[in-house]
Amino acid sequence: MPRVHIDKVVENLYVLRVDDDETKYFEALWYIPEGITYNSYVLTTRNGAVVFDSWKSRYADLFIESLKSVVDLRDIKHVVIHHTEPDHSGSIPKLLELTDKKPVLIGHPLAKALFTSFYNVEAEFRTVRDQEELLLGGKKLRFIHVPWLHWPDTMATYIEEEGVLLTCDAFGGYGVMPVLYDEETIVQQYLPYVRKYVVTVIGHYREHIVKNIEKIAGLKLSIKVIAPAHGLIWRNNPQTIINYYYKLGLASPIERKILVIYDSMYGFVERAINVVLSELKSRGFDVKTYAFTDNRQASIGDILSDAVDSVGIVIGASTYDGKLFPTMSTILRILIEKLNAEKPLLIINVSGWGKPIDESLKTLYESSKFKVVDLVGIKGLIQDNDIDRLKRSIDSLIKTLQ
Ligand SMILES: Cc1cc2nc3c(=O)[nH]c(=O)nc-3n(C[C@H](O)[C@H](O)[C@H](O)COP(=O)(O)O)c2cc1C
Ligand SMILES: [Fe+2]
Ligand SMILES: [Fe+2]
Q1: pLDDT per residue over 50-61, tens digit each?
Q2: Percent of the chain beyond pLDDT 90?
Q3: Same domain, 265 and 211
Q4: How far is the centre of ligand 3, averaged over its atoms, from the C-alpha of 197 (Å)?
Q5: 167 and 60, same structural domain?
Q6: How far is the CA of 365 from the centre of ligand 2 (A)?
Q7: Which structural domain range is residue 364 located in?
Q8: Beta partners for 81?
Protein backbone atom coordinates (compact mmCIF):
# COMPACT_ATOMS: atom_id res chain seq x y z
CA MET A 1 0.00 0.00 0.00
CA PRO A 2 1.58 3.31 -1.03
CA ARG A 3 2.04 5.91 1.67
CA VAL A 4 -0.31 8.88 1.68
CA HIS A 5 0.29 12.17 3.49
CA ILE A 6 -2.45 14.67 4.15
CA ASP A 7 -1.60 17.96 5.80
CA LYS A 8 -2.67 21.55 6.11
CA VAL A 9 -0.09 23.66 4.23
CA VAL A 10 -1.64 26.96 5.33
CA GLU A 11 -5.11 27.80 6.63
CA ASN A 12 -7.73 26.32 4.22
CA LEU A 13 -5.18 24.66 1.91
CA TYR A 14 -4.47 20.94 2.15
CA VAL A 15 -1.87 18.82 0.42
CA LEU A 16 -2.64 15.26 -0.57
CA ARG A 17 0.61 13.48 -1.37
CA VAL A 18 1.12 9.89 -2.48
CA ASP A 19 4.56 8.30 -2.44
CA ASP A 20 5.14 6.32 -5.62
CA ASP A 21 7.93 3.83 -5.11
CA GLU A 22 6.49 1.49 -7.74
CA THR A 23 7.40 3.46 -10.86
CA LYS A 24 10.88 2.25 -11.80
CA TYR A 25 11.30 4.26 -14.98
CA PHE A 26 9.67 7.68 -15.00
CA GLU A 27 8.28 8.51 -18.46
CA ALA A 28 9.28 4.89 -19.29
CA LEU A 29 12.80 6.27 -19.54
CA TRP A 30 14.47 7.54 -16.37
CA TYR A 31 15.50 5.08 -13.71
CA ILE A 32 14.32 6.50 -10.36
CA PRO A 33 15.21 4.27 -7.42
CA GLU A 34 14.61 7.44 -5.35
CA GLY A 35 10.89 7.31 -6.28
CA ILE A 36 8.54 10.23 -6.90
CA THR A 37 5.53 11.80 -5.24
CA TYR A 38 2.35 13.28 -6.73
CA ASN A 39 1.00 16.23 -4.77
CA SER A 40 -2.55 17.42 -5.20
CA TYR A 41 -3.95 20.40 -3.27
CA VAL A 42 -7.39 21.32 -2.01
CA LEU A 43 -8.48 24.85 -1.17
CA THR A 44 -11.60 25.13 0.96
CA THR A 45 -13.59 28.36 0.94
CA ARG A 46 -16.93 29.37 2.42
CA ASN A 47 -18.36 28.96 -1.06
CA GLY A 48 -17.02 25.55 -2.02
CA ALA A 49 -13.69 23.87 -2.66
CA VAL A 50 -11.12 23.85 -5.45
CA VAL A 51 -8.96 20.82 -6.22
CA PHE A 52 -5.64 21.41 -7.94
CA ASP A 53 -4.33 18.47 -9.98
CA SER A 54 -4.53 14.84 -8.90
CA TRP A 55 -2.47 11.64 -8.91
CA LYS A 56 -1.44 9.07 -11.48
CA SER A 57 -4.44 6.88 -12.38
CA ARG A 58 -3.08 3.77 -10.62
CA TYR A 59 -3.77 5.66 -7.37
CA ALA A 60 -7.22 7.00 -8.37
CA ASP A 61 -9.17 5.11 -5.70
CA LEU A 62 -6.72 6.12 -3.02
CA PHE A 63 -6.89 9.70 -4.26
CA ILE A 64 -10.68 9.80 -3.90
CA GLU A 65 -10.48 8.26 -0.44
CA SER A 66 -7.89 10.87 0.61
CA LEU A 67 -9.88 13.70 -0.92
CA LYS A 68 -12.96 12.65 1.05
CA SER A 69 -11.01 13.02 4.27
CA VAL A 70 -10.62 16.77 3.73
CA VAL A 71 -13.68 17.73 1.70
CA ASP A 72 -17.18 16.54 0.87
CA LEU A 73 -17.01 15.68 -2.85
CA ARG A 74 -20.29 17.57 -3.35
CA ASP A 75 -18.56 20.78 -2.24
CA ILE A 76 -15.97 20.69 -5.03
CA LYS A 77 -16.72 23.61 -7.35
CA HIS A 78 -13.63 23.52 -9.55
CA VAL A 79 -10.80 21.25 -10.53
CA VAL A 80 -7.79 23.13 -11.81
CA ILE A 81 -5.68 21.24 -14.34
CA HIS A 82 -2.29 22.92 -14.25
CA HIS A 83 -0.84 20.45 -16.74
CA THR A 84 -2.50 17.53 -18.50
CA GLU A 85 0.30 14.98 -18.22
CA PRO A 86 -1.32 11.85 -16.74
CA ASP A 87 0.89 11.85 -13.63
CA HIS A 88 -1.32 14.79 -12.53
CA SER A 89 -4.54 14.49 -14.49
CA GLY A 90 -4.87 10.69 -14.21
CA SER A 91 -7.36 10.56 -11.33
CA ILE A 92 -9.56 13.46 -12.48
CA PRO A 93 -11.88 11.27 -14.63
CA LYS A 94 -12.64 9.18 -11.54
CA LEU A 95 -13.45 12.33 -9.57
CA LEU A 96 -15.76 13.55 -12.35
CA GLU A 97 -17.47 10.20 -12.46
CA LEU A 98 -18.17 10.25 -8.73
CA THR A 99 -19.45 13.83 -8.76
CA ASP A 100 -21.71 13.55 -11.83
CA LYS A 101 -19.29 15.92 -13.57
CA LYS A 102 -20.43 18.81 -11.40
CA PRO A 103 -17.06 20.47 -10.80
CA VAL A 104 -16.03 22.85 -13.57
CA LEU A 105 -12.58 22.08 -14.93
CA ILE A 106 -10.23 25.03 -15.25
CA GLY A 107 -7.13 25.14 -17.40
CA HIS A 108 -5.21 26.45 -20.36
CA PRO A 109 -7.03 26.11 -23.71
CA LEU A 110 -4.53 23.44 -24.70
CA ALA A 111 -5.26 21.54 -21.50
CA LYS A 112 -8.90 21.39 -22.55
CA ALA A 113 -8.00 19.79 -25.88
CA LEU A 114 -5.51 17.40 -24.27
CA PHE A 115 -7.88 16.38 -21.49
CA THR A 116 -10.62 15.56 -23.99
CA SER A 117 -8.27 13.58 -26.21
CA PHE A 118 -6.70 11.63 -23.32
CA TYR A 119 -9.84 10.71 -21.41
CA ASN A 120 -12.79 11.04 -23.77
CA VAL A 121 -14.73 12.75 -21.00
CA GLU A 122 -17.09 15.60 -21.85
CA ALA A 123 -17.14 17.92 -18.85
CA GLU A 124 -17.63 21.64 -18.43
CA PHE A 125 -14.25 23.24 -19.01
CA ARG A 126 -13.45 26.89 -18.36
CA THR A 127 -10.33 27.91 -20.25
CA VAL A 128 -8.34 30.72 -18.70
CA ARG A 129 -6.05 33.37 -20.12
CA ASP A 130 -2.72 34.30 -18.61
CA GLN A 131 -3.32 36.40 -15.44
CA GLU A 132 -7.06 35.66 -15.43
CA GLU A 133 -8.58 35.68 -11.95
CA LEU A 134 -11.24 33.69 -10.19
CA LEU A 135 -12.94 34.89 -7.01
CA LEU A 136 -14.41 32.19 -4.83
CA GLY A 137 -15.63 32.42 -1.23
CA GLY A 138 -13.39 35.36 -0.42
CA LYS A 139 -10.31 33.89 -2.12
CA LYS A 140 -8.67 35.30 -5.20
CA LEU A 141 -6.99 32.84 -7.54
CA ARG A 142 -4.76 34.13 -10.29
CA PHE A 143 -3.79 31.81 -13.14
CA ILE A 144 -0.36 32.33 -14.59
CA HIS A 145 0.64 30.63 -17.81
CA VAL A 146 4.10 29.08 -17.51
CA PRO A 147 4.46 27.50 -20.96
CA TRP A 148 6.85 24.55 -21.38
CA LEU A 149 7.15 23.85 -17.67
CA HIS A 150 6.70 21.14 -18.65
CA TRP A 151 4.27 21.17 -21.60
CA PRO A 152 2.77 24.06 -23.57
CA ASP A 153 -0.43 23.69 -21.49
CA THR A 154 1.21 24.37 -18.16
CA MET A 155 0.08 27.06 -15.75
CA ALA A 156 0.46 27.97 -12.10
CA THR A 157 -2.06 29.37 -9.62
CA TYR A 158 -1.37 32.14 -7.14
CA ILE A 159 -3.64 32.22 -4.11
CA GLU A 160 -3.35 35.86 -3.16
CA GLU A 161 -4.54 35.86 0.47
CA GLU A 162 -2.14 33.08 1.44
CA GLY A 163 0.77 33.99 -0.85
CA VAL A 164 0.83 30.42 -2.16
CA LEU A 165 2.04 29.65 -5.65
CA LEU A 166 0.93 26.23 -6.90
CA THR A 167 3.34 25.33 -9.67
CA CYS A 168 2.74 21.72 -10.76
CA ASP A 169 5.94 20.32 -12.37
CA ALA A 170 7.90 23.54 -11.93
CA PHE A 171 9.99 23.63 -8.73
CA GLY A 172 9.38 19.90 -8.26
CA GLY A 173 11.82 17.05 -7.97
CA TYR A 174 12.14 13.28 -7.83
CA GLY A 175 12.51 11.55 -4.49
CA VAL A 176 10.25 10.35 -1.72
CA MET A 177 11.43 12.42 1.19
CA PRO A 178 10.39 11.50 4.74
CA VAL A 179 8.92 14.97 5.29
CA LEU A 180 6.55 17.24 3.37
CA TYR A 181 8.31 20.57 3.74
CA ASP A 182 11.71 22.13 3.08
CA GLU A 183 13.28 21.46 6.45
CA GLU A 184 16.89 22.57 6.51
CA THR A 185 18.25 19.11 7.29
CA ILE A 186 16.52 17.54 4.31
CA VAL A 187 17.04 20.16 1.61
CA GLN A 188 20.69 19.31 0.81
CA GLN A 189 19.78 15.66 0.47
CA TYR A 190 16.84 16.52 -1.79
CA LEU A 191 18.40 19.01 -4.23
CA PRO A 192 20.28 16.36 -6.29
CA TYR A 193 16.90 14.73 -6.98
CA VAL A 194 15.57 18.10 -8.11
CA ARG A 195 18.54 18.50 -10.44
CA LYS A 196 18.00 15.08 -11.99
CA TYR A 197 14.28 15.78 -12.39
CA VAL A 198 14.85 19.15 -14.03
CA VAL A 199 17.33 17.91 -16.62
CA THR A 200 15.55 14.66 -17.46
CA VAL A 201 12.00 16.01 -17.56
CA ILE A 202 12.16 19.73 -18.35
CA GLY A 203 15.73 19.88 -19.69
CA HIS A 204 14.69 20.25 -23.33
CA TYR A 205 12.85 23.46 -22.37
CA ARG A 206 15.64 24.79 -20.16
CA GLU A 207 15.44 28.34 -21.52
CA HIS A 208 11.75 28.45 -20.52
CA ILE A 209 12.75 27.84 -16.91
CA VAL A 210 14.70 31.08 -17.01
CA LYS A 211 11.99 32.97 -18.94
CA ASN A 212 9.17 31.85 -16.65
CA ILE A 213 11.10 32.59 -13.45
CA GLU A 214 11.83 36.08 -14.77
CA LYS A 215 8.17 36.45 -15.69
CA ILE A 216 7.07 35.41 -12.18
CA ALA A 217 9.63 37.76 -10.60
CA GLY A 218 8.21 40.59 -12.74
CA LEU A 219 4.73 40.01 -11.31
CA LYS A 220 5.99 41.08 -7.86
CA LEU A 221 3.95 38.48 -6.04
CA SER A 222 4.38 38.08 -2.35
CA ILE A 223 5.30 34.39 -2.44
CA LYS A 224 5.32 32.73 0.95
CA VAL A 225 4.89 29.14 -0.21
CA ILE A 226 5.84 27.28 -3.40
CA ALA A 227 3.68 24.20 -3.67
CA PRO A 228 4.74 21.91 -6.53
CA ALA A 229 3.13 18.66 -7.66
CA HIS A 230 6.28 16.58 -7.05
CA GLY A 231 8.53 16.52 -4.01
CA LEU A 232 8.93 18.99 -1.18
CA ILE A 233 6.73 21.99 -0.48
CA TRP A 234 8.74 25.17 0.08
CA ARG A 235 7.34 27.21 2.93
CA ASN A 236 10.44 27.95 5.00
CA ASN A 237 12.53 29.32 2.20
CA PRO A 238 10.77 29.35 -1.20
CA GLN A 239 13.53 31.48 -2.70
CA THR A 240 15.95 28.52 -2.36
CA ILE A 241 14.09 26.47 -4.96
CA ILE A 242 13.49 29.46 -7.22
CA ASN A 243 17.22 30.25 -7.22
CA TYR A 244 18.17 26.59 -7.70
CA TYR A 245 15.84 26.20 -10.68
CA TYR A 246 17.16 29.42 -12.17
CA LYS A 247 20.75 28.19 -11.93
CA LEU A 248 19.77 24.88 -13.52
CA GLY A 249 17.91 26.75 -16.24
CA LEU A 250 21.13 28.55 -17.06
CA ALA A 251 23.16 25.30 -16.70
CA SER A 252 25.52 27.26 -14.45
CA PRO A 253 28.67 25.23 -13.74
CA ILE A 254 30.17 24.40 -10.39
CA GLU A 255 33.81 25.38 -10.51
CA ARG A 256 36.21 22.48 -11.26
CA LYS A 257 33.50 19.86 -11.66
CA ILE A 258 34.16 17.68 -14.71
CA LEU A 259 32.04 14.82 -15.94
CA VAL A 260 33.64 11.75 -17.53
CA ILE A 261 31.47 9.19 -19.35
CA TYR A 262 32.86 6.13 -21.10
CA ASP A 263 32.13 2.67 -22.42
CA SER A 264 34.66 -0.11 -22.53
CA MET A 265 34.05 -3.64 -23.79
CA TYR A 266 37.49 -5.11 -23.08
CA GLY A 267 39.27 -2.35 -21.17
CA PHE A 268 41.01 -0.38 -23.95
CA VAL A 269 38.93 2.76 -23.57
CA GLU A 270 39.17 2.40 -19.82
CA ARG A 271 42.98 2.52 -20.01
CA ALA A 272 42.82 5.80 -21.91
CA ILE A 273 40.23 7.16 -19.49
CA ASN A 274 42.41 6.23 -16.52
CA VAL A 275 45.09 8.53 -17.91
CA VAL A 276 42.50 11.30 -18.23
CA LEU A 277 41.21 10.73 -14.71
CA SER A 278 44.60 10.83 -13.02
CA GLU A 279 45.59 13.88 -15.06
CA LEU A 280 42.38 15.76 -14.17
CA LYS A 281 42.61 14.82 -10.51
CA SER A 282 46.26 15.85 -10.28
CA ARG A 283 45.23 19.23 -11.67
CA GLY A 284 42.68 19.64 -8.88
CA PHE A 285 39.44 18.84 -10.69
CA ASP A 286 36.49 17.23 -9.00
CA VAL A 287 35.70 14.38 -11.40
CA LYS A 288 32.41 12.49 -11.63
CA THR A 289 32.75 9.26 -13.62
CA TYR A 290 30.10 7.08 -15.25
CA ALA A 291 30.98 3.82 -17.00
CA PHE A 292 29.38 1.25 -19.28
CA THR A 293 31.34 -2.01 -19.02
CA ASP A 294 30.60 -5.74 -18.89
CA ASN A 295 29.59 -5.38 -15.26
CA ARG A 296 28.57 -1.74 -14.86
CA GLN A 297 25.77 0.17 -16.60
CA ALA A 298 25.40 3.77 -15.46
CA SER A 299 22.00 5.46 -15.24
CA ILE A 300 21.56 8.00 -18.03
CA GLY A 301 19.37 10.16 -15.78
CA ASP A 302 22.23 10.44 -13.27
CA ILE A 303 24.63 11.31 -16.09
CA LEU A 304 22.38 14.16 -17.27
CA SER A 305 22.04 15.35 -13.70
CA ASP A 306 25.81 15.60 -13.27
CA ALA A 307 26.23 17.12 -16.72
CA VAL A 308 24.13 20.24 -16.09
CA ASP A 309 26.47 21.77 -13.53
CA SER A 310 29.80 20.48 -14.86
CA VAL A 311 32.30 22.87 -16.38
CA GLY A 312 33.15 20.36 -19.10
CA ILE A 313 32.54 16.80 -20.26
CA VAL A 314 34.95 14.05 -21.37
CA ILE A 315 33.58 11.21 -23.47
CA GLY A 316 35.48 7.95 -23.98
CA ALA A 317 33.89 5.75 -26.63
CA SER A 318 34.91 2.68 -28.55
CA THR A 319 34.13 1.97 -32.18
CA TYR A 320 31.47 -0.66 -32.68
CA ASP A 321 30.36 -2.03 -36.06
CA GLY A 322 31.80 0.95 -37.86
CA LYS A 323 30.10 3.51 -35.62
CA LEU A 324 30.38 4.98 -32.18
CA PHE A 325 29.49 2.51 -29.40
CA PRO A 326 25.64 2.44 -29.47
CA THR A 327 25.03 3.41 -25.83
CA MET A 328 27.44 6.31 -26.16
CA SER A 329 25.84 7.64 -29.33
CA THR A 330 22.48 7.50 -27.54
CA ILE A 331 23.94 9.41 -24.60
CA LEU A 332 25.42 12.05 -26.89
CA ARG A 333 22.08 12.47 -28.60
CA ILE A 334 20.25 12.74 -25.26
CA LEU A 335 22.82 15.26 -23.99
CA ILE A 336 22.08 17.41 -27.02
CA GLU A 337 18.31 16.93 -26.68
CA LYS A 338 18.06 17.55 -22.95
CA LEU A 339 20.97 19.76 -22.01
CA ASN A 340 22.45 21.42 -25.10
CA ALA A 341 24.61 23.81 -23.10
CA GLU A 342 27.63 25.87 -23.97
CA LYS A 343 30.03 23.43 -22.36
CA PRO A 344 33.32 22.12 -23.77
CA LEU A 345 33.53 18.46 -24.75
CA LEU A 346 36.62 16.33 -25.15
CA ILE A 347 35.98 13.14 -27.13
CA ILE A 348 38.28 10.13 -27.11
CA ASN A 349 37.54 7.38 -29.59
CA VAL A 350 39.29 4.02 -29.42
CA SER A 351 39.02 1.79 -32.47
CA GLY A 352 40.48 -1.50 -33.73
CA TRP A 353 40.99 -1.48 -37.47
CA GLY A 354 39.01 1.56 -38.55
CA LYS A 355 39.79 5.26 -38.61
CA PRO A 356 38.61 7.42 -35.68
CA ILE A 357 34.99 8.47 -35.99
CA ASP A 358 35.48 12.19 -36.14
CA GLU A 359 33.39 13.26 -39.13
CA SER A 360 30.08 11.86 -37.91
CA LEU A 361 30.72 13.32 -34.46
CA LYS A 362 31.44 16.73 -35.87
CA THR A 363 28.15 16.63 -37.76
CA LEU A 364 26.38 15.62 -34.57
CA TYR A 365 27.72 18.65 -32.75
CA GLU A 366 27.51 21.25 -35.48
CA SER A 367 23.87 21.88 -34.62
CA SER A 368 24.37 21.94 -30.84
CA LYS A 369 25.75 24.46 -28.38
CA PHE A 370 28.38 22.06 -27.07
CA LYS A 371 31.88 22.86 -28.23
CA VAL A 372 34.13 19.95 -29.19
CA VAL A 373 37.57 21.12 -28.05
CA ASP A 374 39.41 18.03 -29.27
CA LEU A 375 38.81 14.63 -30.80
CA VAL A 376 41.46 12.08 -29.92
CA GLY A 377 41.67 8.89 -31.97
CA ILE A 378 43.48 5.91 -30.45
CA LYS A 379 44.05 2.39 -31.87
CA GLY A 380 43.67 -0.38 -29.28
CA LEU A 381 46.05 -0.24 -26.34
CA ILE A 382 47.34 3.26 -25.55
CA GLN A 383 51.01 3.90 -26.27
CA ASP A 384 53.33 6.59 -24.90
CA ASN A 385 52.53 8.91 -27.78
CA ASP A 386 48.79 8.49 -27.05
CA ILE A 387 49.42 9.47 -23.43
CA ASP A 388 51.18 12.66 -24.59
CA ARG A 389 48.31 13.32 -26.98
CA LEU A 390 45.75 12.84 -24.20
CA LYS A 391 47.61 15.23 -21.91
CA ARG A 392 47.67 17.87 -24.64
CA SER A 393 43.95 17.42 -25.20
CA ILE A 394 43.36 17.98 -21.49
CA ASP A 395 45.42 21.17 -21.77
CA SER A 396 43.06 22.32 -24.55
CA LEU A 397 40.03 21.46 -22.44
CA ILE A 398 41.36 23.34 -19.43
CA LYS A 399 42.27 26.33 -21.56
CA THR A 400 38.64 26.73 -22.60
CA LEU A 401 37.67 26.98 -18.93
CA GLN A 402 39.82 30.02 -18.22
C1 LIG B 1 31.59 -6.01 -31.06
C2 LIG B 1 32.76 -5.19 -31.52
C3 LIG B 1 32.64 -4.43 -32.67
C4 LIG B 1 33.72 -3.65 -33.13
N5 LIG B 1 33.58 -2.91 -34.26
C6 LIG B 1 34.65 -2.19 -34.71
C7 LIG B 1 34.58 -1.43 -35.91
O8 LIG B 1 33.57 -1.40 -36.59
N9 LIG B 1 35.67 -0.71 -36.29
C10 LIG B 1 36.82 -0.72 -35.58
O11 LIG B 1 37.77 -0.05 -35.94
N12 LIG B 1 36.91 -1.45 -34.43
C13 LIG B 1 35.87 -2.17 -34.00
N14 LIG B 1 35.97 -2.90 -32.85
C15 LIG B 1 37.24 -2.88 -32.12
C16 LIG B 1 37.19 -1.95 -30.91
O17 LIG B 1 36.72 -0.68 -31.27
C18 LIG B 1 38.56 -1.82 -30.32
O19 LIG B 1 39.03 -3.11 -29.94
C20 LIG B 1 38.61 -0.92 -29.09
O21 LIG B 1 39.92 -0.92 -28.60
C22 LIG B 1 37.66 -1.40 -28.04
O23 LIG B 1 37.90 -0.77 -26.82
P24 LIG B 1 37.13 -1.32 -25.53
O25 LIG B 1 37.52 -2.75 -25.36
O26 LIG B 1 37.61 -0.46 -24.40
O27 LIG B 1 35.67 -1.17 -25.78
C28 LIG B 1 34.92 -3.68 -32.41
C29 LIG B 1 35.02 -4.44 -31.26
C30 LIG B 1 33.96 -5.21 -30.82
C31 LIG B 1 34.14 -6.04 -29.58
FE1 LIG C 1 5.00 16.95 -16.71
FE1 LIG D 1 4.74 15.79 -13.39
Answers
A1: 999 999 999 999
A2: 96
A3: no
A4: 10
A5: yes
A6: 28
A7: 257-401
A8: 107
